[in-house]
Design brief:
- This protein has 14 helices and 11 strands.
- It has 456 residues and is of the alpha+beta class.
- The chain has 3 domains: 149 residues, Orthogonal Bundle (Triger factor/SurA peptide-binding fold); 163 residues, Roll (Chitinase A, domain 3), CATH 3.10.50; 106 residues, Chitinase A, domain 3 (Roll).
- The longest helix has 32 residues.
- This is Chaperone SurA.
Length: 456
């Protein structure tokens, strides 16, 4: 089977085995299909679970020995599907919406990244036994979850200038980044002494397997880790020193690539950390880019204002400016970008795609002081006036932005995982397949069955 390489938009879907899993809602249930689990008012069908598991098996073709037993794998994948349903429901319940046009744009991007047309993508899906309708539903769900996570980040996560300054100072002293992987043996909040002892025994057994050479770290993560990234071998990617808890960071400085820590107790349970690689990121080469200075007027699309109405309003505002009205006066009276309304719509200096490809494309096509026709983006309709351009070295600015992003990402991971645990605990989940179906209760999370490591 030919594999499709997705854009970053769908990294989570592919990693979770969900790309062709489909999104089946209660009203779509067919009597001939079995139900794998009920999640609040939604369901996961057995065929949906089987497709997601098959996708994982295809990813591990030739390395199936790294996967846990079939029943354990099914439980891991089912938990991912459950979390996806919970997140989609949360997004829809809080007013997050995705339009058909946005889904089409995302699919077009996936096709382009695979260097095929959308029609060829449809044909590929058909050859793989997947329906285009289910594929679109998967894209929709991923976009909903992305927007929910973005909204969550905006309301729950903030990074101060002082935090960025401190991180830059620390990075200037060391300049070291660490590529890490981990294995998590999770503990519930308020774990009992017996639960702690069981988890300690399990993590010790996993460490013994690795030390004896009976299993490599990635395979052990796939088989035994309770982390959401278990099926990716526990890979945590590159982390700056400030992104790692101080106690762990001190350990990293003493380790060599390939080494693994002894079991470490953290807020989520016991962990094994592996140092994969180390690199020096202290030096910043000049980074020359073209920056643009522009101002804009925004007319938003909403439940009360259709796209046609927003476009018509934007065209009227553009006609007023062409007729002699001052741009800044129209901004003050009519722009719906509250962040720039009191600044005459001024966006300051920015790089081409900072506000999205449609906005950037419009700005680059203008001459200085020219005013665009209404431009459509995901935010609504914009009237843009380009004020100037310059060549600028943004190495320091880029580095600061990267540090701010990494600190924010770390905070978001912590808050988001806590949020998901809360929502998972509150959800009614009724398992209809596997061992979890023997003792279903609302608001409880079934512990994943785990093969007992040798030596545990």
């Amino acid at each position: 089977m030919n594999k499709l390489f997705a854009s970053p938009l769908l990294a989570g879907l592919i990693a979770g085995g969900l790309l062709f899993g489909g999104a089946v809602h209660a009203q779509d249930v067919q009597p001939i299909d079995r139900i794998a689990a009920i999640v609040d008012e939604d369901v996961i069908l057995k065929t949906e679970l089987d497709r997601a598991v098959a996708n994982i098996l295809a990813q591990y073709a030739g390395r199936s020995e790294q996967l846990p037993p079939r029943d354990v794998l099914e439980k891991q994948v089912l938990e991912r599907l459950i979390l996806l349903k919970i997140q989609v429901a949360q997004a829809q319940g809080t007013g997050v919406r995705v339009t058909d046009q946005e889904i089409d744009q995302a699919i077009g991007g996936i096709a382009q990244s695979n260097k095929i047309s959308v029609e060829q993508l449809r044909q590929q899906l058909a050859r793989d036994g997947s329906s285009y309708t289910d594929f679109r539903a998967s894209i929709r769900d991923e976009l909903l979850v992305q927007r929910l996570r973005q909204r969550f980040a905006q309301t729950r996560v903030s990074v101060s200038d002082a935090e960025v300054d401190a991180a830059l100072a620390a990075q200037a002293n060391t300049g070291t980044q660490y590529h890490l992987a981990h294995i998590l043996v999770a503990l519930p909040e308020g774990a009992t002494a017996e639960q702690i002892a069981t988890a300690q025994k399990k993590v010790d057994g996993v460490k013994a397997l690795i030390d004896k050479g009976e299993m490599d770290f990635n395979a052990a993560a796939v088989r035994y880790s309770d982390s959401p990234n278990a099926l990716e071998g526990g890979d945590l990617g590159w982390r700056n020193g400030d992104e790692i808890p101080a106690a762990f960071s001190d350990l990293m400085k003493q380790m060599k690539p390939g080494q693994i820590t002894a079991p470490l107790r953290g807020p989520s349970g016991f962990q094994l950390l592996k140092l994969v690689e180390v690199r020096d990121a202290s030096q910043s080469a000049p980074q020359m880019v073209t920056q643009y200075h522009a101002r804009h007027i925004l007319v938003r699309v909403s439940d009360q204002v259709s796209e046609a109405q927003a476009k018509a309003k934007a065209e009227t505002l553009r006609a007023r400016i062409a007729g002699g009205a001052k741009f800044e006066d129209v901004v003050k009276e009519s722009s719906e970008d509250l962040g720039t309304q009191n600044k005459g719509g001024d966006l300051g200096w920015f790089m081409k795609d900072e506000f999205g490809p449609e906005f950037g494309g419009a700005v680059t096509s203008l001459a200085d002081n020219d005013i665009s026709q209404p431009i459509h983006t995901s935010a609504g309709y914009h009237i843009i006036q380009r004020l100037g351009t310059r060549e600028s070295d943004v190495a320091d600015q880029s580095k600061r932005a990267q540090v701010q992003e990494t600190i924010g990402r770390r905070k978001l991971e912590e808050e988001w995982n806590r949020f998901l645990r809360e929502k998972r605990g509150e959800a009614y989940v009724d398992f209809r397949v596997g061992k979890g179906s023997e003792g279903n209760q609302p608001g409880t999370e079934t512990t994943l069955p785990t093969a007992k490591p040798a030596g545990s």
